[in-house]
Design brief:
The chain is about 85% helix and about 0% strand. It is mainly alpha-helical and about 180 residues long. The chain is elongated, with a radius of gyration of 24 Å.
Length: about 180
């Protein structure tokens, strides 16, 4: 290998490394903008509103599911898991709904670690309760609900990302 071709390869490698570093920096900046918008301003306000909707919907669904178990008690494992999960989820989601009202009033999220933990546990327990409840009715329904829940998560994430990734806010008129 000649000195000229070795130098050329080194120059190409350095140029590729520089372009990769620039692309990584742009991706980080774009992610930071998306995160900042999600936590403050219009994005933060909308996230607070959506959180309240999620908490209320999960509480309502949990109460309806638990009501069925109260009418016809079952010793089935999936029924027990569902009831235990809902017994964790309902009080946490109710507390989160009350915090959400204050967040709505203040127009911002709370930075509390305990609230973040309650969100994870409350929403996770509600999901487990729903999957176990559907599993109790018919195990295929439980599997389908579990799979559809993950698909829904990816659809929401993809939709949010496509809408919020560094786009200028919509000013009305035709989208």
């Amino acid at each position: 290998m000649s000195d000229g071709s070795a130098e050329e390869l080194a120059r190409i490698a350095e140029e590729a490394r520089r372009k990769a570093d620039e692309a990584a920096e742009q991706a980080r900046a774009q992610a930071d903008r998306g995160t900042a918008n999600a936590l403050t301003g219009e994005g933060g306000e909308e996230a607070v509103k959506q959180s309240g909707l999620v908490y209320g919907g999960l509480i309502g669904t949990a109460v309806v599911m638990v009501q069925g178990f109260l009418e016809t008690p079952s010793r089935d494992t999936s029924a027990r898991i569902s009831i235990i999960a809902f017994s964790v989820a309902i009080p946490l989601l109710a507390a989160l709904l009350m915090v959400n009202r204050q967040e709505t009033f203040r127009r911002r999220h709370t930075p509390s670690v305990s609230v973040t933990g309650a969100k994870v546990v409350g929403q996770g327990a509600a999901f487990v309760g729903l999957v176990a409840g559907f599993w109790h009715i018919y195990w295929i329904a439980g599997v389908v609900f579990l799979a559809a829940g993950f698909v829904g998560l990816f659809v929401h994430s993809a939709g949010w990302w496509r809408l919020e990734r560094g786009q200028a806010p919509w000013q009305g008129g035709e989208p």
